[in-house]
Amino acid sequence: MGTLWVAGLAAAAGGARTLGMEGDCRAPQARSSGLPAGGGGGESPGGDAPLPGSSGSSSLLQAEVLDLDEDEDDLEVFSKDASLMDMNSFSPVMPTSPLSMINQVKFEDEPDLKDLFITVDEPESHVTTIETFITYRIITKTSRGEFDSSEFEVRRRYQDFLWLKERLEEAHPTLIIPPLPEKFIVKGMVERFNDDFIETRRKALHKFLNRIADHPTLTFNEDFKVFLTAQAWELSSHKKQGPGLLSRMGQTVRAVALSMRGVKSRPEEFMEMNNFIEIFSQKINLIDKISQRIYKEEREYFDEMKEYGPIHILWSASEEDLADTLKGVASCIDKCCKATEKRMSGLSEALLPVVHEYVLYSEMLMGVMKRRDQIQAELDSKVEALTSKKADTDLLTEEIGKLEDKVECANNALKADWERWKQNMQNDIKSAFTDMAEENIHYYEQTIYYGPIYSSCKEKEEMIQNTHAHTA
Questions:
Q1: How confident is the model at residue 175 (pLDDT cuts 50, 70, 90)?
Q2: Which of 128, 143, 232, 284 is most enclosed, with most CB atoms within 10 A?
Q3: 423 and 37 in contact (C-beta within 8 Å)?
Q4: What are the b/e assignments for 151-188, b being 16+ CB within 10 Å?
Q5: Which residues is 138 bridged to in the sheet?
Q6: Model's pTM, two decimal places?
Q7: Across residues 183-187, what is the average pLDDT?
Q8: Distance CA 42, CA 381 (A)
Q9: Taking CA 176 as the corner, what is the angle to CA 189 and CA 265, rounded to the nearest 5 degrees?
């Protein structure tokens, strides 16, 4: 049964050895946030406290934990938003704010205080002559001095969240930006304005903003501040101040050209990082498919089982000899239904969102590696031009110096953020599987108690039916 898959995966994750990138990363370490690692503003399962036995090392789950049968059939799963890998958001601009640079360094004496609290709630449907869309209320409470007030309330639609993600990628091309939930759903899984879908998206958007708020660098981004505080007309005006269409097109063309050219000598640590991302992507996608299949099978099992209780009650009314037995069976079925429904709720709220978020993270990481390679490829092309003396030597030497600084900054930012992301990922996945294992243990404790009662009732029922058959 699908439950055994979840229990097996959970047990494996809970007792897993850890594996990470070998080698010492000497980049500045990111400042820890006020929330536990991997916390998403209270939405992340198991985010209230770190797991016992989890260390602060940069290690990851063992690849063996995710080493599942890859011959699984394709399932109906959420489509992947192409914008996650869209290189239109690439910009050579690196963060120059001293505050951004300072917050990439961890100070031992700095207290871990959370000073930014964000809540996403109250989805509201809007219908116009052109389109129908949903907005979400965003409440921000803060004690930071750079904010004009201690509390803000605004409404944002999905396109506004997408704009924020793209702006963060432009300003910090080699930082790991939290993923957004997909824009579209295909294969008839859910209807776009279905209440369940809207609630699922609301939770994902809540986690998106809180992961940014907990990030030591992204949390101080000016566009993030505007997103949280500006009224609708102010946000619209701020969006128009960004790079124009022609500028974005030029950046895209250059990015594509550099990606086609490739990187001649990617550092070994980034080769290992890229290999890890590829393996992680394969395994987490497989776990996502298996988890979706388990949930689908559990739903079908639950829908079928809950029909049997009323049937046995009706049957008991017409069979005096079987009345007590049939009512006992109906009672057992009802209790099993409630236990199964609770376990399904744990699966849909604790495990599925976490696994699927890291499917999206794997895509985001591939985009980050491409942007890092593009910055290095630009440096390589200038060095090659200087060697062949195809342009002004003095001008090229100056440009190369600037590009070398940019590459070093990009590499250090990625290495520091990589370690932070790995620790959060390990905590999130271990917590999700541990919570799911506990749910399964509780479920089996209940069903073990109900099982003998059900079996006894079934035996009596079959005995009476056989007696009636022989009499007839």
A1: very high
A2: 284
A3: yes
A4: ebebebebebbbbbbbbbbbbbbbbbbbbbbbbebeee
A5: 120, 154
A6: 0.68
A7: 56
A8: 46
A9: 115
Token pair of 30 as six digits: 């990111």
Q: What is the pLDDT of residues 297-314, one digit of tens each?
A: 999 988 988 888 888 888
Tell me how long the chain is: 472
What's the whole-number average pLDDT of the chain? 74
Sheet order of strands, 151-157 included: 116-127, 132-142, 151-157
**Is 184 within 8 Å of 79 (Cβ atoms)?**
yes
Q: Taking the mean position of all CA atoms in its chain, how far away is CA 156? A: 20
Question: 354 Cβ partners below 8 Å, 6+ apart?
Answer: 44, 45, 428, 429, 431, 432
* Contact call for residues 308 and 453 (beta carbons, < 8 A): no
Cβ–Cβ under 8 Å, residues 211 and 111: no
Query: Which pLDDT does position 216 carry in this prediction?
Result: 93
- Between strands 18-19 and 151-157, the pairing is unpaired
Q: Is the dihedral of CA 147, 151, 157, 162 positive or negative?
A: positive
Query: What gap in Å lies between CA 157 and CA 137, rounded to an integer?
Result: 9
pLDDT in tens, 47-92: 444 444 444 444 444 444 444 444 444 443 333 343 333 433 334 4
> What type of residue sits at position 377?
A
Residue with tokens 């290999």: 275
In whole angstroms, how far apart are CA 18 and each of 15, 55, 203, 284, 427?
A: 9, 10, 29, 16, 11
Sequential DSSP letters for 64-127: GGG---S-PPP---PPPPGGGG-GGG--S-----HHHHHTTS--TTS-----EEEEEEEEEEEE
Cα–Cα distance, 431 to 65 (Å, whole number): 14
Q: Residue 415: name the closest of 2, 10, 23 by CA.
A: 23
Nearest to 432 by CA among 1, 4, 2, 12: 12
For residues 339-348, average pLDDT: 87
Closest Cα to residue 49, out of 40, 60, 37, 59?
Answer: 37
* 3 state SS of 358: helix
Range with lowest mean pLDDT among 104-118, 332-346, 392-406 = 104-118
pLDDT at 226: 95
The DSSP call for residue 153 is E
